[in-house]
Specification:
single chain; alpha+beta; PH-domain like; Recoverin, domain 1; TIM Barrel; 4 domains; 26 helices; 22% strand; globular; disordered N terminus
């Protein structure tokens, strides 16, 4: 996670690049040169030879080049084009903008690299065992690696130390290999520095300016930001940013604007510079609003006319503090010092003012006020709750909700889809800290070494190597050594030799990062996330030596008996799942969290704290509606519970996690490969506490008989005012303008332990994603504020397509006029989605009981 930006001193070089706002040239966009001083290898600016790994696993030579302004990387390679008589080679270029990049990832933890490795000689170490044949039950071509005899010799050695991936727009990758490890590291270090600098600088720039820079190169025929854009090209800009304007009206507005800024006819034909285009875009937005919410808020808060009778164009710091921050936003702790710091930042922001006259530093303009409304400081998600709090990380593990994944290895459904190592990397970067591995015997290597594999046993899903998964996790740990504990949840179907091999590999791969509990540490409270920071924890089986407990069978296995879909095909799977498996001592001693079968919660509360249970979603509902629910809540105060989707969810759909959270379950495991509304609830829950994967449970769930405290109802009013810079679905650029609407849903749990979702929907705004206006109010009753989550989802009315969303726990909501940062389906804010926000008016109030 990129650290939150903090105020800092401006260097002499930066001061020269950012002259005072009162200067005549303050409308210039200095952000365009923000990355110029970042040091990068000259070879990267000239073009570095690399090997590209394609989607099918094939490799080809390419050149990676960083643009002179350091905002764009370009991958150039030859492509074969079929002509009438013969094929010819043409150069292709793929540009990735810095704003689209999510991270730079070293190693080979992507699907493209996996496919390349399957094609390479590396897979030839495995014989034609079950790994290649697949299971006799539900056998499929998808279920095996290519036979070594059918794998062509790879011309390119796939060395992990040479490999890296550029992850962009959520789930897209450029997978590359450098000539040497030194070159790889120099490229990755340079791109990391540029990404960090971009994240630091962009908060000084208005969203409209960032959006224009993002679309400029794609639309402008000249390509470079220093060139001019004629009116015909500007029409394409409006199309890409989702605003429809008739060509006649655009031409008229363009000519008028050109005259206002002093351009003669020849200059107007030549076109506008980037800075002029930004100001023109701002003017279009300002003049096109019929009933502008910001104007209404401005007038309501500060008055349309000042005391001297003039129209109000600015507001003072004292008036802003008293009437807006304290009066409207309810921020009683705000001080004049805070406001003056905020005003300094707003005066440093690059906003495309239509009239860039100097402004008194103790005042802000209407444009600066609007920029503040959409800024991170004004987000509806309380920054204090979003920020990481290290003080809260010293309680036992049982006192936290833990971001957890189910069947982490799958990229699709539970029966026929592929397994991928990449899913572990994706889950970790999404904030997940409990990963699941279904581990089976997978044949032996040529030297007789056992080869454990991970797959959804006795189905047609594909297999991946256990060792590849733990290597991927180790790579993540290497670059994130301060991460809070990563829990590996083993569903162990392996025979003793394979378990012994697993234990050896775990110790060798993770070394001191593997938490190995001592016998003395097993009694008393569980360790805290702080104590386990940077470590891997094993959840599996740690038998106590009695005959009844010496086998690997627990709630994970018994509840999986609900997998009764496709009964004939899965009859053998269910029989296998219910077999008892003896646990190898070498693996048992590495295990902290011991799964065992539930008899009663009262009995389980007498077991050591490292004993835990697992429950399917159906069992969760059953227990929540029984008299045992309060015993379960008490159990979860000192012990761990993991829940997971019902086996009948063959499509890998998710269940609502709120019910399990409401009784204190720590590991509420979801299918991360299915990016649905329930996974987005999970994203919102763990946005709290810096997305570190651990959120301290509410106090009502941690004190005896305190559960009723969380059920005091609240009134919640949400008025959806407007949107800003809303993108097209899936980051597309060439489609028609969107017709957006917003779906507002409150997910809650009633006192009767039942989930409820109260849903409303705005009207559709046609052909305007740049600044749509709704002004629609919705009222909710919140029954359980400690777990309830408000979810706002942006849709395109055409085909009812998902565009973006945000999920905010009610306990993290702030009242007042607030902005909402939107996220794509991968929970990312990269590319065009990075500039997208909604504007809300939120009111939260207690319900006073009638006497």
């Amino acid at each position: 996670m990129i650290p939150r930006s903090v105020p800092r001193k401006i260097s002499h070089n930066e001061a020269a690049a950012h002259p005072p706002r009162g200067s005549p040239t303050h409308h210039r966009i200095y952000f365009l040169n923000a990355l110029a001083t970042i040091q990068v290898p000259n070879s990267l600016l000239r073009g570095v030879p690399v090997t590209q790994v394609a989607a099918d696993g094939t490799t080809q030579t390419a050149t990676l080049t960083l643009s002179r302004d350091k905002f764009t990387v370009t991958l150039s390679s030859e492509a074969s084009v079929a002509g009438f008589f013969s094929k010819s080679a043409v150069m292709t270029h793929r540009d990735v903008d810095i704003s689209e990049m999510d991270r730079i990832q070293r190693g080979q933890s992507t699907q493209y690299f996996e496919r390349a490795k399957k094609k390479a000689d590396r897979m030839g170490i495995l014989p034609k065992s079950e790994l290649f044949r697949g299971s006799s039950h539900g056998s499929s071509a998808n279920n095996s690696y290519p036979s070594p005899s059918s794998v062509a010799s790879s011309a390119t050695a796939l060395h992990p130390e040479l490999s890296f991936s550029i992850i962009f727009r959520g789930a897209h990758t450029l997978d590359l290999m450098a000539a040497t490890s030194e070159t790889r590291d120099k490229i990755c270090d340079a791109l990391d520095r540029i990404l960090l600098a971009y994240q630091r600088y962009k908060v000084r720039v208005a969203h409209e300016v960032l959006l224009l820079r993002y679309v400029w190169l794609n639309v402008n025929d000249h390509g470079r930001l220093g060139q001019h854009m004629p009116v015909q090209q500007f029409g394409k800009v409006l199309q890409e940013i989702n605003f429809v304007m008739k060509q006649r009206d655009l031409q008229s507005a363009y000519d008028h604007f050109g005259k206002v800024i002093g351009l003669d006819r020849s200059s107007r034909r030549k076109g506008l510079t980037f800075e002029q285009s930004a100001t023109f875009l701002h003017k279009i937005k300002r003049d096109s609003w019929m009933v502008k919410p910001v104007q209404v808020i401005w007038n309501d808060m500060f008055g349309e006319v000042m005391n001297n009778g003039k129209m109000r164009t600015t507001v003072s710091d004292k008036t802003f503090l008293e009437k807006f921050l304290r009066g409207k936003q309810g921020d009683a702790k705000a001080t004049l010092v805070d406001v003056r710091k905020l005003f300094r930042r707003l005066h440093e922001m690059e906003i495309a003012h239509a009239t860039p006259e100097p402004i008194d530093p103790s005042r802000i303009s209407k444009d600066q006020f609007e920029a503040f409304l959409h800024a991170p400081e004004n987000d509806v998600f309380d920054p204090e709750k979003e920020r990481f709090n290290k003080v809260d990380m010293n309680q036992p593990l049982s006192e936290y909700w833990i971001n957890s994944s189910h069947n982490t290895y799958l990229i699709g459904d539970q029966y026929t889809s592929h397994s991928s190592v990449e899913m572990y990397s994706e889950a970790l970067y999404r904030g997940c800290r409990c990963l699941e591995l279904d581990i089976w015997d997978g044949g032996r290597a040529a030297d007789g070494t056992p080869v454990p594999v991970v797959w959804h046993g006795h189905t047609m899903t594909t297999k991946i190597l256990f060792v590849d998964i733990i290597k991927t996790i180790k790579v993540f740990l290497n670059f994130h050594p301060d991460t809070f504990p990563i829990i590996l949840s083993f569903e162990n179907h392996c025979s003793i030799p394979y378990q012994e091999y697993m234990a050896e590999k775990l110790v060798r791969t993770f070394g001191p990062s593997l938490y190995i509990p001592t016998e003395a540490s097993l009694y008393g409270a569980l360790p805290s996330p702080s104590k386990l920071r940077g470590m891997v924890v094993i959840k599996g089986r740690r038998p106590d030596g009695t005959e009844a407990d010496a086998y690997d069978t627990d709630d994970d296995f018994s509840d999986d008996g609900e997998d009764l879909f496709l009964a004939k095909e899965l009859e053998a799977r269910n029989a296998e799942l219910h077999k008892k498996h003896r646990v190898a001592p070498q693996l048992a001693r590495l295990t902290l969290l011991h799964g065992h079968k539930l008899q009663t919660f009262e009995e389980s509360m007498r077991t050591p704290s490292y004993f835990m249970h697992s429950f399917s979603e159906n069992k969760v509902r059953s227990y929540c509606r029984s008299k045992s629910v309060y015993s379960w809540i008490d159990y979860n105060q000192t012990h761990m519970s993991r829940t997971y989707p019902a086996g009948a969810r063959v499509d890998s759909s998710n269940y609502n996690p709120l019910l399990a959270w409401s009784v204190g379950c720590q590991m509420v495991a979801l299918n991360f490969q299915t990016q649905d509304a329930f996974l987005r609830l999970n994203d919102g829950r763990f946005r709290e506490n810096g997305n570190c994967g651990y959120v301290l449970k509410p106090s009502a769930l941690m004190i005896k008989d305190g559960y009723s405290e969380a059920s005091s109802p609240l009134k919640l009013s949400v008025k959806v005012l407007s949107g800003s810079c809303l993108p097209k679905p899936k980051g597309q650029r060439t489609r028609d303008c969107i017709d957006p609407y917003v779906k507002v849903v409150l997910y809650d749990v009633l006192k009767e332990e039942k989930e409820i979702a109260t849903s409303f929907q705005t009207v559709v705004v046609h052909q305007n994603g740049f600044f749509p206006i709704w002004n629609e109010k919705f009222n909710f009753l919140v029954e359980n504020w400690a777990v309830a989550i408000l979810q706002l989802t942006l849709h395109n009315n055409t085909k009812d397509e998902f565009i973006a969303s945000a999920s905010i726990p009610v306990s993290c909501l702030r009242g007042g006029i607030r902005s909402v940062k939107l996220y794509d389906e991968t929970n990312s804010r990269t590319g065009a989605i990075d500039f997208a926000t909604l504007l809300l008016d939120v009111k939260i109030g207690q319900i006073v009981a009638e006497i």
